[in-house]
Structure formats: C-alpha cells, structure tokens
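FORM 12-B: Structure-to-Sequence Request
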C-alpha cells in the first residue's frame, strides 16, 4: 500500500468538501416555520394547562380533612363495581 497515494486522495477530498461548504453557506436563504391554526390552538391549551395547578384544592380539601379527622367513609360496594368496570374495559 502506498501512503503517498492515500494522502493525495485525502487532500483532494478535503478540498472538494471545503468548496461545497463555502458554496452552500453563501446562498443567503433562511429557514421559515409556519404554525397552523390547529398548532396554535394546541400551544394555547398547553399554556393554559401549565398555568393551572396540578391538584384542585377545592375538591381535595374536604376529603383530606375527613381523612385526618377519621370520619371518611369508603363505600366498598361502589368501589368494587368501579374496579370491575375498569377490569372489563381493560380486557
């Protein structure tokens, strides 16, 4: 194997890639992004969700107070029915 031939080929290849890079950078074109109205609606919905709290305190505060007081009662029959419904949906 001749090392000189390899370096000559490498030099030729490097000069061609430099020429291509210079040509493409001088085009003066800029990328543009257009967002559809549906995309804008999604952005607005995401912003509204980001501003809202993760936990709705007005709903959880009474239940939390009942649990802390020891007065919270679980309706086991309705819990069992809901568990069965979810199980049937998953199947």
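FORM 12-B RESPONSE
SEQUENCE OUT:
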């Amino acid at each position: 194997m001749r090392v000189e031939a390899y370096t000559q080929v490498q030099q030729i290849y490097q000069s061609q890639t430099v020429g291509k890079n210079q040509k493409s950078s001088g085009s003066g074109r800029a990328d543009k992004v257009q967002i559809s109205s549906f995309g804008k609606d999604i952005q607005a919905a995401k912003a509204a969700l980001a501003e809202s709290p993760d936990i709705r305190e007005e709903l959880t505060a009474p239940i939390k107070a009942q649990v802390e007081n020891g007065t919270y009662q679980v309706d086991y029959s309705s819990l069992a029915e809901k568990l069965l419904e979810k199980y049937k949906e998953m199947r």
